[in-house]
Amino acid sequence: MKTIAVLVGSLRSGSFNLKLAKALEKLAEGRLKFVYPDLGSVPHYNDDLWSDLPASVTALKSAIDESDAVLFVTPEYNRTYSPLLANAIAWASRPYGKSSFMHKPGAVVGTSPGAIGTAAGQVDLRGLLPVLGVIPMGQPEVYLQMKPDLIDDASNVTVPDTEAFLKRWVDAFVAFVDRVAL
Ligand SMILES: Cc1cc2nc3c(=O)[nH]c(=O)nc-3n(C[C@H](O)[C@H](O)[C@H](O)COP(=O)(O)O)c2cc1C
After folding, report:
1. Burial code of 106-124, b = ≥16 C-beta within 10 A, e = fewer?
2. Which of 21, 154, 171, 173 is least surrounded by CB atoms within 10 angstroms?
3. DSSP-based three-state secondary structure for 21
4. Measured in angstroms, how far is the CA atom of residue 76 from the centroid of ligand 1?
5. What spacing in Å lies between the alpha carbon of 167 and ligand 1's midpoint?
6. Res. 133: pLDDT tops 90
7. Which residues form the NADPH-dependent FMN reductase-like domain (predicted)?
């Protein structure tokens, strides 16, 4: 079974994006293993720290290095992806020439209560993926407008059409990772 490093761009305890990640994990049960590096303990990027690297950064890079693919689950902050993700991405992309993302298949999804469902934030993030060395899955896309109780506490998607939509995305991602992962 392929392992996916899932980078969720929110630390909020009730994060809709974490809910989305967990729902996708459930829909991929038995086909993909999701691991969630702890982005909250990673310090602000600072070149000086490479001489005595914080364990949180080592753990982040190892989790990505050891995964077959990466999944970015991003909120939209001011029409771009979240600063939490930007910081984690900066660390994992370094040192120069040793990006943990290099040659990894990857995809971007996201959710927000807003009508465009993180479309603007995702567009920004997708533009970054080739720079990182990620081989992006272009289609299908997930721009999900979060509604109350759309995803329940057991990570079930409660609206059948949305569940089917997300399941199609999972099927495509499983096939993409199988095809592209080294
Ligand atoms: C600084 C900030 C900027 C935001 N900008 C946007 C935005 O551009 N578009 C949008 O749809 N929602 C925006 N939101 C609302 C977030 O989508 C909302 O807080 C969402 O719940 C965050 O994701 P989470 O639930 O995973 O924490 C913004 C929220 C914050 C805190």
Report:
1. bbbbbbbebeebbebbbbe
2. 154
3. helix
4. 5
5. 25
6. yes
7. 4-146
